[in-house]
Each structure stands twice: as C-alpha cells, then as structure tokens.
Design a protein that fits this description.
This protein has 304 residues and is an all-beta fold. It contains no helices and 19 strands.
C-alpha cells in the first residue's frame, strides 16, 4: 500500500464586497466590510430580515422554549472592541485594535467609521486585511446604518476562515434591519495539497494551491520519498523529481512518474512534496501535541 504525507497552505484570492456611502439600496451585512488585502473576502452564510425592529419574532427567548434562539441573536447593542481572535494554520495572529483615545472607531472618511482586522506574521510584521464598519452614513449624513457584532469571533484553522455574527440598525431609510452570520475567507488552510497515486500508471499527482506552503508563488515543486521507519529524519529521504513543475499556477495539476516498485510486505513508503521559492524551501506543516508547526526542512538534502 502506498502511504502519502503532504501538507501545504493556501489563501484564496476572490472578489470582495464593498460598502457605499451613497444610498442606492438597503444596507446589507456584506456592506459592513471592505477589503484592504485582495487575498481575503467575505461570504454571507445567512441573512434574515425579521418583521419586528427588535428581532423579537426571530430571536425568541422564553423559559418554555424547546430550543435556544439563533446564535446571531446576541449581536444587538454590542460594538467592536479590542479583540484577539486567534492564530491560523501558518502561525499568523489575527486581532482588532480600537483607537487608544477619543472615539471607539477609526474615521476612514466622512461617511465610514469602524476598525481594521489585522494579521501579524511570525516575524512580528502587521498587515491590514479589511475594514469593518461600525457606522456608515448616507444621503449627506441624514441617514445611516450601525452594525452590531457578536464577539468573540470563531477562527477555523482547517478551512482558513473567521466566522462572526452581526446585525444592522438602519435609521431614516425605508429599509428593514437584518441579522445573520458571515465568514471571512482566505486565511491559510491546514491541508490543501494532496498527493494522489494511480497504481496502473505508477503516477503521482499534486494540485497546486493558491499559496503553496504559504509562499506567494512557487518557483518549483519537488517530490521526495522514503521509508516510514525513518520519519521524521528527512536526511534519509530520496528525491523522486527535483522540478515537478516550474512556476506552477494555482489550481494546476502536477503529475510525475514513480519508478519505484511496491514496497515489500510489512514495509511502507511515504511521499512528500517540497516547495521552492527563491532560496527558501518549505515542507508544509505538521500537527503534534494539539498544535500546528512548520516542518523543519533543514535536514532535507539538496535536490539534484
């Protein structure tokens, strides 16, 4: 039986929904966000429009009910605050900071107020990802929408998402308030590159992720193999191919042959992909002791 080990990281780059200051339609939950980094986006998982202004018909609360109200019903009246969200599969930290003095929101322009979702990498460098609005004014300031957020947010390291609940409080517009749940997409994922094996053709294939092993792009992919008894001693790995693909594009299926015979009964072989970008090489991530960490590529021989 072939044994396959491979882990990589990716971030999807998709179109983002942008808020507008000029009133053309009723404000939605998606309008609460505006991208700064194009690798992240927002998807609305559900958005309800209750008939009552206080959401009482949607957020039923009683002592005799057989089920609790929807999760997002805790959003009413809450505002954004300094918040540590957590870390992704690549070890980046996510947080929201409010101004240290004065208003509890940043002033982006005359119509938009809110905070910024930020990411700090393992080197301590902070990146702005997206604006999260607390208030948006329309029609020269005569009408506005305020967004209430339920904290804490939920980070998913497996799928690379942040899930949060929020609601709208719309004033002086012929619109009904909405409430629901959205997801922020595009964080590094735990597992995106999967090596597959085709027995009839002795062929291995790997699907190139958007950000291979966390790199913005890959110069080449390498494939290695070894006896599982030697793990995790990468110095005993044997190269199968040193340039499985040159500058592979996201979504490209990379195939290469495996000339080795099947291992004997009682033995197993692992396969591993390495990503080369410039002078750096990465081997994906591992999960040990309940935490994720990067595999150390220093012991892997130079591929020649």
């Amino acid at each position: 039986m072939r044994r396959v080990l491979s882990v990589a990281l990716t971030t999807a780059a998709v179109t983002f929904l942008t808020a507008r200051s000029a009133h053309t339609q009723c404000p939605s939950l998606a309008d609460a966000f505006e991208a700064i980094d194009s690798t992240v986006s927002v998807a609305v998982l559900r958005e309800a429009t209750p008939s009552s202004s206080d959401f009482s018909d949607y957020c039923t609360s009683c002592t005799t009910c057989t089920s609790p109200p929807p999760y997002e019903c805790g959003t009413r009246g809450l505002i954004l605050k300094t918040l540590t969200i957590g870390a992704d599969a690549a070890g980046n930290s996510y947080f929201i900071s409010i101004p240290t003095s004065g208003s509890l929101a940043l002033t982006f322009d005359g119509d938009h107020y809110g905070v910024i979702l930020q990411r700090m990498d393992r080197a301590g460098v902070v990146h702005d990802l997206l604006r999260m609005f607390s208030t948006i004014y329309f029609n020269d300031g005569t009408s506005f929408v305020q967004y209430g957020y339920l904290t804490p947010f939920v980070i998913d390291t497996i799928n690379g998402t942040i899930t949060l609940a929020l609601s709208t409080d719309i004033r002086n517009l012929p619109c009904q308030n909405t409430i629901g749940i959205v997801q922020i997409l595009g964080l590094p994922k735990t597992f995106d590159t999967l090596l597959s094996f085709v027995p009839s053709g002795q062929t291995l294939a790997a699907l190139t992720p958007g950000l291979p092993d966390g790199f913005r792009s890959a110069d080449s992919l390498q494939a290695w193999t070894g006896n599982v008894r030697t793990l995790p001693d990468w110095s005993r790995a044997t190269p199968l191919v040193c340039s499985a693909a040159i500058s592979p594009s996201p979504g490209q299926l990379v195939s290469f042959s495996d000339p080795l015979p099947d291992p004997p009964i009682g033995e197993a072989r692992y396969y591993l992909t390495a990503t080369q970008s410039g002078t750096q090489r990465r081997l994906g991530r591992r999960y040990m002791g309940g935490t994720f960490s990067a595999r150390d590529p220093s012991g892997l021989p130079v591929c020649q």
